[in-house]
Design a protein that fits this description.
Lambda_DNA-bd_dom_sf; mainly alpha; six-stranded parallel β-sheet; 759 residues
């Protein structure tokens, strides 16, 4: 067995704080077996790995590759594990700051949090990133970097809840498993860090309130913080304060950035350093200006600095005067863009130039140290330079036109990518001009994944800052991708703002679609507040404006609500009305979805032949469209029909096929559904131990997905299986868990669990 797996399992146990005796009772595994698993003498069943992770509240999925490697037995060479590394480039000419670097590295090996403070441009980020790269070998499980935009012009600081969502996603936690409350996210973040050795750089922090929920708890991970403020309220954080560079360090840095000997022994060096304020950022800009002028001496540079304004802004402005018109325009427009960074294509759209011209201009600005390229092909600016750029752009009244071009680019490219990935519904989404082409669906998905944060930020910004049409378009276009890949939590703010924008515009068609999508995203996370009223409102509004597709979606949503309430008659009525409308507008995917719903209604009513016909039609529809996730859902529905008919062996085969369809699609809800079905079928076949394993795995998947209905089903399945094994305490524990979920989500299965607990 891989020693890496044993080490990770020990970390999980430490994070949960449970004794072997406690684990023996919870997992129904002997303490001697647990000891062998934790010391690497044996490979545990996957259900034990999942159960152990559940006791600590951590995600088991990162352990799956190690477990599978252990099951295959020893192999030549070390085990290969994939870790997340988001650190920006480490500067190759890092110079000076040796005392401060030593202080950070020493503190990092003794403390959990190091807080680096200093004025803007003093080199805090460069030091933190350089130190993090030096620490990578000691913290191999993850190296993360997050800019919290505490002092970024034109951007609000990142809220702690959103920062936690980003960090948890970086550790591989699916969005559906990330809780809503900040306190719960912070607890999950601490739990995830506790089983890893990770180094995390939290950059550009506004204040202690922003960063306190992001700090680690137990375990070995460390956090490096940078801020313009001294964060004296963080208690155990080890402070490292940066002043401007001393004369010798400033000279060394300037010489390294210049790259030649012109700064050596020049009487003008002291004046150049003084006029640059001994600030690393400003020294780098001044050196870049001189580097491209071989004929200049240091006296020439000093003369130019002497003629300009004194101070940081003056030196930076001087560097801008040396740009040609195209470079200067690109520089100032970059300061306007919302989002994390810009790709070359986005920058080309922003400046209305060709992609090749944009790439050349951006490379020129990188060479001049006026733009950063921490990730290949993606560009952003230091806050001081961004402030300068924004001011220059606003003086020229360039903001409205430039940002409209950028938002147009995002809308068109998103539409092109989404239509390539989801062609069956393209005619039902807003028609916009084509954007940059994508050769294959995989390229479109890669673009959407890479730009997702920028797209969501741009859509929200558009809604709030006067581009409501773009907000509505982005939200409507992106829905199939965001919903299909379970990016619900991060996207909900976009849909709330876009819905407000549609109402502000009087765009009733947009309101219909966005309210349908808003309801769907909330329902995926078990939130049904006002769902009936919203669905009826959107149905009535769709009818009023003649939007047949929007009306069908609302009817299907109402049918789902009645199904959850066990009102089969009204559910079937709504589904049949929706089916007729979906067929009328040629919505193939939705037709297959509703046929699947009708099959379940007929099956619960005992009309099994009718149920199977509907489900077979749905299966053929999903196969024709090429949606394996849909096929998996219908296979699970067929399994349910077989269970109702008392045919558990056939049900098991359907659920196994469903599981195969869902695996590899990053759709844990589907896997949880299939595993729960397999557990029920196994129990009916008398294989109760297998049932426990299946339901445990389903619970892990449902927690990942943030899917309360399937969490409840997994707890219920475990309760019934444990009771059959005579394990009444475990049965009561899981029945109580199921009851909590059912009560919280208003599901009628709560009555079943009350009866179970009373029995």
């Amino acid at each position: 067995m891989s020693e890496d797996l044993a080490r990770r399992l020990r970390q999980v146990r430490e994070a949960g704080g449970r004794s072997l005796r406690d684990l023996e009772r919870s997992l129904h595994v002997s303490s001697s077996s647990l000891s062998r698993y934790l010391t690497g003498q044996a490979v545990p069943p996957w259900s034990v790995v999942v159960g152990l992770c559940q006791t600590a509240g951590v995600d088991p999925r990162p352990l799956r590759p190690l477990w599978e490697a252990g099951k295959r037995g020893p192999r030549v060479g070390p085990a290969v594990t994939v870790t997340r590394n988001d650190l920006p480039y480490d500067i190759s000419t890092f110079t000076g700051r040796q005392e401060e670097l030593a202080a950070v590295l020493t503190a990092a090996r003794a403390e959990r949090v190091v807080a680096i403070d200093g004025m803007g441009g003093v080199g805090k980020t460069t030091l933190a990133v350089h130190a993090a790269h030096r620490l990578t070998s000691d913290y191999p499980d993850a190296q993360l970097h997050l800019d919290l935009h505490g002092f970024t012009p034109g951007r609000d600081p990142v809220e702690p809840g959103e920062a936690l969502r980003i960090l948890l996603a970086a550790l591989g936690v699916p969005s559906g498993r990330i809780p809503e409350a900040v306190e719960e996210r912070a607890a999950l973040w601490r739990s995830e860090l506790a089983m890893r050795r990770a180094v995390v750089v939290l950059d550009n922090v506004a204040g202690q309130a922003q960063v306190r929920p992001l700090l680690p708890g137990a375990g070995s991970s460390i956090v490096l913080i940078t801020s313009r403020r001294r964060l004296i309220g963080l208690g155990d954080a080890h402070p490292v304060s940066l002043d401007v560079l001393g004369p010798r360090e400033a000279a060394d840095l300037f010489g390294a950035a210049l790259g030649d000997a012109r700064a050596q022994d020049s009487p003008a060096l002291e004046e150049v350093l003084r006029r640059c304020g001994h600030l690393p950022l400003v020294l780098g800009v001044a050196a870049a200006r001189m580097r491209h002028r071989p004929a200049w001496t240091l006296e020439t540079l000093a003369e130019y600095l002497r003629e300009g304004d004194l101070g940081t802004a003056g030196v930076l402005s001087m560097s801008l005067r040396d740009l040609d018109d195209g470079q200067h325009r690109m520089f100032r427009l970059l300061g306007l863009a919302p989002g994390v960074d810009l790709s070359v294509h986005a920058a080309a759209a922003l400046a209305e130039v060709s992609v090749s011209t944009a790439r050349r201009l951006l490379d020129d600005l990188v060479d001049a140290s006026l733009v950063l390229e921490n990730v290949p092909g993606r560009y952003h600016q230091h806050d001081l330079l961004r402030e300068l750029a924004r001011g220059a752009a606003e003086e020229r009244d360039e903001k409205r036109v430039a940002l409209t071009r950028l938002l147009d680019h995002y809308v068109r490219a998103a539409a092109t990518a989404t239509n390539l990935l989801y062609p069956s519904g393209a005619h039902l989404r807003p028609a916009v001009p084509a954007g940059e082409p994508f050769a294959r669906p995989a390229d479109a998905l890669r673009w959407l994944d890479g730009e997702r944060a920028n797209l969501v930020t741009a859509g929200t910004y558009a809604a709030e800052q006067g581009w409501p049409e773009h907000a509505v378009l982005l939200a409507r276009i992106l829905y199939p991708y965001l919903d299909g890949h379970a990016h619900h939590a991060e996207s909900l703010p976009l849909y709330g703002r876009a819905l407000e924008a549609a109402r502000h515009l009087g765009d009733r068609a947009g309101e219909v679609h966005l309210l349908n999508e808003w309801m769907s995203m909330n329902a995926r996370q078990g939130r049904y507040d006002h769902a009936h009223d919203d669905a009826k409102h959107v149905r009535d509004l769709a009818r009023e404006i003649g939007d047949r597709y929007g009306e069908a979606r609302a009817l299907n949503a109402l049918g789902d609500m009645h199904w959850r309430e066990r009102d089969d008659l009204r559910a079937e009525e709504r589904f049949r009305a929706a089916l007729e409308l979906f067929r009328e507008v040629d919505a193939g995917t939705d037709v297959a979805i509703v046929l699947g719903n009708l099959g379940l209604v007929a099956g619960r009513q005992g009309r099994y032949d009718e149920a199977e016909r509907a489900l077979r039609q749905a299966l053929a529809g999903f196969a024709a469209i090429g949606l394996p996730g849909g096929q998996g859902t219908i296979r699970a529905n067929l399994g349910q029909i077989c269970l109702w008919q008392g045919r558990p062996a056939e049900a098991l085969e359907h659920y196994r096929e469903a599981l195969e369809h869902h695996r590899g699609l990053d759709y844990p809800s589907g896997e949880a559904d299939a595993l729960n079905g397999m557990g029920v079928a196994a129990r009916h076949l008398g294989e109760v131990t297998q049932a426990v394993e299946d339901h445990r795995a389903a619970l892990a998947m449902a927690v990942e997905a943030g899917d309360p209905a399937r969490q409840g089903a997994a707890h219920e399945g475990l309760a019934r299986a444990h009771r059959e094994r005579g394990e009444r305490d475990l049965a009561r524990e899981h029945a109580t868990g199921a009851l909590d979920v059912y009560v919280r989500t208003g599901l009628p299965e709560a009555d079943d669990m009350r009866a179970f607990l009373a029995g």
